[in-house]
């Protein structure tokens, strides 16, 4: 990076979700915005995300499965759009913009035009019609989106994310999944010796981007061992980890290697071991994919899709929260800063208190042993 070049983290960020009917041009629009072929232009059954830097902005674009709607913008189609978009909450309309991937057909006063007017009105008259699709047009669309964001932030008194000055983290995962390497990466422990097997819980502390971080590393489980098959000592250590960062952890990072096939057995083993923390633990789990350099040019979303139901099921259990780290490259700390941002976003939306509550009966059982 040259002296005059800004780090990507310093650039303004826009997060865009593409919604629409099948064959409405969502995926093509996503590719146009990012300036590269990231989304397959065929029917999809799950969401896909891609990132890039365009026109001096960091973009995160999410493509979604297309809605099954009738042809033409009929009353039935209007109602289908209203109901599906409404699933995101009534406030979503204040963040919507209509993008016409082709010029609207029909004469003024026709039913289709009336329903389209309703949609444009519902979105606050924010709309854009694609033309040639050149760089200038993409820049114009992004300017309109930026205006929408600025208006929304100025119009509402929504509580902004307040950085958590102290974040307590428990690392969970199978043996060899990269838990200890991740601890070293997060704490910036350059030149640390190659990690060996973690036999019992250990704690590390350090500062990163203005946050005091406490990380608890735990013994890993054999990836094909279910919960009851792990040793009593290892299970007790997992439970004990909660008490090593009092009054309780904020986040559980579940490490998963991207270079290993994620089988149904592996998924069940991971869920049973994490479940030892208690049924509410899943509200605070983020899946952390390690060995990110192994992906090469493949996105993690494509990797997840290729793995199938076991990995998708685990992500759904964790509220589809995930992050990718390359433990071999410390870089400028961007990957750690982005992870901290995701953790703080999760904590801001948590409804069960500032931290994970360590169950008293669990700790009493531990003390008796």
From TrEMBL:
Residues 164-364 form the AIG1-type G domain. It holds the Pfam family AIG1. The keyword GTP-binding applies. Gene3D superfamilies: P-loop containing nucleotide triphosphate hydrolases (3.40.50.300). Keywords: GTP-binding, Nucleotide-binding. One of its GO terms (molecular function) is GTP binding. InterPro entries: G_AIG1, GIMA/IAN/Toc, P-loop_NTPase. Belongs to the TRAFAC class TrmE-Era-EngA-EngB-Septin-like GTPase superfamily. AIG1/Toc34/Toc159-like paraseptin GTPase family. IAN subfamily. This is (spotted green pufferfish) hypothetical protein. It comes from Tetraodon nigroviridis (Spotted green pufferfish).
């Amino acid at each position: 990076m040259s002296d005059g070049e800004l780090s990507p983290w310093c650039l303004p960020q826009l997060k865009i979700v593409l919604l629409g009917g099948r064959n409405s041009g969502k995926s093509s629009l996503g590719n146009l915005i990012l300036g590269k072929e990231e989304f397959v232009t065929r029917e999809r059954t799950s969401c896909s995300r891609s990132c890039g830097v365009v026109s001096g902005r960091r973009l995160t674009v999410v493509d979604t499965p297309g809605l099954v709607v009738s042809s033409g913008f009929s009353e039935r189609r209007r109602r289908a759009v209203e109901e599906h978009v409404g699933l995101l909450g009534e406030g979503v309309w204040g963040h919507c913009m209509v993008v016409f991937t082709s010029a609207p057909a029909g004469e003024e006063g026709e039913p289709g035009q009336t329903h389209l007017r309703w949609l444009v009105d519902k979105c606050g008259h924010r709309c854009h019609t694609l033309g040639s699709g050149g760089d200038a047009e993409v820049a114009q669309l992004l300017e309109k989106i930026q205006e929408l964001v600025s208006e929304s932030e100025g119009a509402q008194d929504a509580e902004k994310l307040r950085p958590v000055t102290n974040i307590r983290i428990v690392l969970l995962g199978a043996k060899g999944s990269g838990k200890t390497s991740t601890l070293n990466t997060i704490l910036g422990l350059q030149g640390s010796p190659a990690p060996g097997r973690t036999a019992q819980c250990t704690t590390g502390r350090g500062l990163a981007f203005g946050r005091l971080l406490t990380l608890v590393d735990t013994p890993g489980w054999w990836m094909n061992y279910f919960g009851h098959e792990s040793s009593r000592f290892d299970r007790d250590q997992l439970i004990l980890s909660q008490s090593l960062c009092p009054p309780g952890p904020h986040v559980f990072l579940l490490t998963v290697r991207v270079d290993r096939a994620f089988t149904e057995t592996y998924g069940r083993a991971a869920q049973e071991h994490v479940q030892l923390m208690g049924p509410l633990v899943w509200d605070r789990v983020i899946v952390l994919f390690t060995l990110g350099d192994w992906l090469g040019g493949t996105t993690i979303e494509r990797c997840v899709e290729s793995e199938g139901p076991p990995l998708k099921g685990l992500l759904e259990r964790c509220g589809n929260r995930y992050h990718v780290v390359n433990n071999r490259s410390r870089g400028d700390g961007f990957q750690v800063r982005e992870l901290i941002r995701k953790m703080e976003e999760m904590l801001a939306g948590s409804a069960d208190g500032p931290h994970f509550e360590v169950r008293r009966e669990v700790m009493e059982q531990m003390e008796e042993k």
